[in-house]
């Protein structure tokens, strides 16, 4: 009997030693997997977009984008006839928001006299709606999911230690930035944005094709330049803004409080770039030195480009990155 018990204990000790050995090997393997995972994470993070945006770089990219689009539109030939009818019908297919244009008689030479400005406004508005007025460029379903996650995060009750509102909002903003940075690092993201830009080229091509131009348009050249000089840089800038820890705000000045009865005053010259519909040039402040800030100088026709702001963080006020651009009919007596 004693021998049987000793044999049993010996067998159990052997099995226990074997189990300990297996556990040791499993722990080693687990540690190796953790190390490998950490290395992969480190490599992945190294390739994520970095948050190195400065106000100056955002300003320069935005201004360059505006100049490229304005030049691209201005190089279209004049519309031979029926500009207003074609514009109104074509606008319904692509318009990005409710736009209150001045009445046709408000334009000094009629709407055709500001053909480039009107076409530029609609073109940028379309680009803005699809690339900038979203959490990040890309498929709408992905945007919907990311936006819902961001909104749900903002509704969560702060944990102890994050009770200070600014700290909590900073944590949410950091989560948003990290999540978007990880999302845009996916190989599928670039492909989806390329597809989106290709569709935008097609939409804008169809929009401009509704007009009867005085000369033949080289559509292949226009489409290639649209993709290379405008849409690709726009998508890149939009992605950078989305990934940034900073938050940005666009202002289209649609609220009535900005322009009561569409009246543009001298004070607007300090906060906006104001273009004269007659001359197509920037209105200079010098000629209005003797006027009070509230003095009317013209009527608003259209907001061509919105202003871009970097939002404040609760401790600092928001920063103007670039002024908005508006087109006015200057008063005849000025």
UniProtKB/TrEMBL annotation:
The protein, known as: Uncharacterized protein
Coiled-coil parts of chain: 16-43
Keywords: Coiled coil
Organism (species): Aspergillus carbonarius (strain ITEM 5010)
